Amino acid sequence: MFKPLLFTALLLPAAAFAECEPVVVGDLSVSAPWSRATIGASRPAVFYVTITNSGSEDDALTNIASPVAGMPMLHETVVKDGIASMPHAMSIPVPAGETMRLAPGSYHGMLMDLTGAQKEGDSFPVTLSFQNGGDVTIDVPVLSLRAEEAECAAAP
Amino acid sequence: MLRTIQIILWAAVAVVLGYLALTRFQDEPAATSFRPTFALPDETGTVRTSGEFQGKHLLVFFGFTNCPDVCPTTMMEVAEVMDVLGSDADEVQPLFISIDPERDRALGLTEYVTAFHPSILGLAGDDAATRTTAESFKIFYDRDADANAPDGYTMSHSPALYLVGPNGDWLRQYSYGTPAQEILDDLKGRL
Predict the structure, then answer these.
(1) Does the pLDDT of residue A13 top 60, yes or no?
(2) Could B69 and A36 be called an inter-chain contact, meaning their C-beta atoms sit closer than 8 Å?
(3) CA-based nearest distance A44→chain B, Å
(4) Above 80 in pLDDT, residue B12?
(5) Does A3 reside within a domain?
(6) In CATH, which of 3.10.450.50, 3.40.30.10, 2.10.25.10, 3.90.180.10 is domain B34-188?
(7) B-side interface with A, Cβ within 8 Å?
(8) For chain A, which end, N or C, has fewer CB atoms within 10 Å of the first or last residue's CB respectively?
(9) pLDDT exceeds 60 at position B95
(10) pLDDT tens by residue, A35-76
């Protein structure tokens, strides 16, 4: 009688956790991806993620790709002397032993030329290409327009 | 070398600004504030002016809708502020003034701002009116050529949120990243 219940109770957090599971390739762990709902398809979507490099060799995120965006790019928001600008980032460093966050007000992926509007509750894959670590594909949940951070905690 | 020139130029700017601030202060001891003005069309083409909002506090943000990171973050905070203000929200009008008016009109300004909060009013003039408004608020914006950006350019701009009082006086700015709660605490004390 209690056994199935207990079993379900044990499974539930595991199932919830599975979606937040980081994708690990070699020394790189990619976790807590998220995007915001877009207003129509003609304005860019954003892509945020956390990357941890547990190896002893520096790496760098050099490119992103997604089937939902014809023109994905890496950008950095820079606020300097009271002016915000958004230069194109050729690559984003992921130094050995460190964690790099693509987060609001900092590095981010800008997904342009969308195939459609991204709605809250949707998700789409993004493939991250690293200089040394190869390619990592992760599923990115689309959160509300007013989301400020990932729902999944970043991998330690 | 470039860095040195940059530092010298900024120092020169600081000196000039300091001098201007000082002379202004001497001329009008009471007036460290100023009155920004605007006359800009909303999406329907109706020209909205600073004068018609007398009696209300204005929360003004300059931005562009093709902006995935800075602008949504601030608009989200404005939305949060308006939600929490409740009945006091009638006394506050949030404005989004486009610094990329031609493209924003084509993309749809009202659709963008109201997606964040129905109370936000989007304004987009022509280049001259936009420049005049920015000067009136003493803010900076510029168009940066970027071959990799959509349409070959992106915008840089002052990302702060500006508060204008019920008599039209510029009251203060909330710098980029100020949490909604801090804006609320400050604003509630003024309503």
Answers:
(1) no
(2) no
(3) 6
(4) no
(5) no
(6) 3.40.30.10
(7) 10, 65-70, 72-73, 76, 79-80, 107-108, 111-112, 115-116, 140, 144, 146, 148-150, 154, 156-160, 175-177
(8) N
(9) yes
(10) 999 988 888 999 999 999 999 999 999 999 999 999 999 999
Structural domain contains residue A127: yes
- Please answer yes or no on whether B68 and A110 come within 8 Å at the CB atom: yes
Supply the range of the domain harboring residue A88.
22-143
Do B43 and B105 contact (CB within 8 A), yes or no? yes
User: What is the structure's pLDDT at A65?
Assistant: 98
Task: Look at residue A4 and tell me if it is in a domain.
Answer: no
| pLDDT in the model for residue A153 | 78
Task: Judge whether A104 lies within some domain.
Answer: yes
Token output for B38:
């605007």
Number of domains in chain A: 1
A4 has pLDDT over 90 = no
DSSP string, A110-138: EEEEESSPPPTT-EEEEEEEETTTEEEEE
Rounded CA-CA distance A57/A90 in Å is 19
